[in-house]
């Protein structure tokens, strides 16, 4: 059977978090029902959190099911050859009303050995930032396990970590092993490997509604941490109606498209493409049909869609695997 290929949107998978808020609703129009919604998983095949198609002929089907049926058409010939029928990336929007925990993610080798999982290389695009909002990324200076443990014990860990003030449009690329935390007052688009493995180092001694603290993973983190000073901020061009490269790594490529008018897009069929609309709205024209997208929308363009038109006024993240 030859499927009718079309742009796919998915039901958001909403996650309550101790640090979450309500901006996913007020800014991105997500159907949240609580005052502590921290994450909207837009595109996921993480076990027990698999995205379900929200539009068209495949509405109600899981992303896993349609990839299993049509791997080359959906993920692309090269992505299928490399990853099989696994979808290799996870896409989220996050609302940090409070600081997230200080954490680290293992690399592929460690994650495979311990959890039979991918590692978690990720990037953040800052969509909205309150005044004086900041993030934590890496160490101020080269450190080591002993210094880290001593500061953790004395509750002075923040004194050796690098804090960076941020604004909307800033991008940070976090390789595995980078100690990090998203700070309060930020809405972030996050692109990462398909993994939910996080080692929590410090959680500011917070307790939940029942008075319980969240689990820490101090020992697991020891050999996952990169103790070197790292550069995480990515500078990029913003040429109108062009794909401006932000990140190009083995796991994904992310471009920034400042759309103002109409552009024709051609694809090779080797990889899927994902568009995350971070501002404004746009129309996608394909096979004589026109689909509308707005800020907060995420759309998966199957690899078999090799020619289409984007039209509108929007800021768009374009993600694929190269």
UniProtKB/TrEMBL annotation:
Domain Phosphomannose isomerase type I catalytic: 10-117
Entry keyword Metal-binding: yes
Origin: domain of life: Bacteria
Residues of the Mannose-6-phosphate isomerase cupin domain: 246-320
Annotated CDD domains: cupin_PMI_type_I_N_bac
Cofactors named for this entry: Zn(2+)
Molecular functions (GO terms): mannose-6-phosphate isomerase activity; zinc ion binding
Entry's cofactor comment: Binds 1 zinc ion per subunit.
Active site positions: 200
InterPro entries registered for this protein in UniProt: Carb_Metab_Reg_Kinase/Isom, Man6P_isomerase_Firm_short, MPI_cupin_dom, PMI_typeI_cat, RmlC-like_jellyroll, RmlC_Cupin_sf
Gene Ontology BP terms: carbohydrate metabolic process
Keywords: Isomerase, Metal-binding, Zinc
Binding residues annotated for Zn(2+), in chain numbering: 105, 122, 180
Stated name of the protein: Phosphohexomutase
């Amino acid at each position: 059977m030859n499927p009718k290929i079309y742009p796919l949107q998915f039901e958001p998978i909403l996650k309550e978090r101790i640090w979450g808020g309500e901006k996913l609703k007020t800014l991105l129009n997500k159907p949240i029902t609580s005052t502590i919604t921290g994450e909207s998983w837009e595109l996921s095949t993480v076990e027990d959190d698999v995205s379900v198609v929200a539009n068209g002929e495949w509405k109600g089907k899981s992303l896993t099911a349609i990839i299993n049926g049509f791997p080359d058409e959906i993920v692309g010939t090269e992505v299928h050859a490399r990853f099989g029928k696994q979808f290799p990336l996870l896409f989220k929007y996050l609302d940090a009303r409070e600081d997230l925990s200080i954490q680290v993610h293992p690399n592929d080798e460690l994650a495979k050995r311990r959890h039979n999982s991918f590692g978690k290389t990720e990037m953040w695009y800052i969509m909205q930032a309150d005044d004086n909002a900041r993030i934590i990324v890496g160490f101020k200076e080269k450190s080591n396990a002993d210094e880290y443990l001593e500061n953790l014990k004395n509750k002075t860990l923040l004194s050796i970590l690098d804090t960076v003030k941020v604004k909307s449009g800033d991008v940070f690329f976090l390789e595995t092993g980078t100690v990090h935390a998203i700070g309060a007052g930020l809405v972030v688009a996050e692109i990462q490997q398909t993994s939910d493995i996080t080692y929590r180092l410090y959680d500011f001694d917070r307790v939940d509604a029942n008075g319980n603290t969240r689990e820490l993973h101090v020992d697991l983190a020891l050999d996952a941490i990169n103790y070197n000073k790292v550069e995480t901020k990515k500078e990029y061009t913003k040429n109108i109606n062009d794909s401006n490269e932000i990140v190009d790594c083995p796991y994904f490529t992310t471009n920034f498209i400042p759309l103002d008018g109409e552009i024709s897009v051609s694809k090779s069929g080797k990889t899927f493409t994902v568009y995350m609309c971070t501002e404004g709205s746009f129309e996608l024209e394909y096979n004589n049909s026109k689909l509308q997208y707005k800020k907060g929308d995420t759309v998966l363009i199957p690899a078999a869609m090799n020619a289409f038109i984007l039209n509108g006024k929007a800021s768009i993240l374009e993600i694929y695997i190269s």
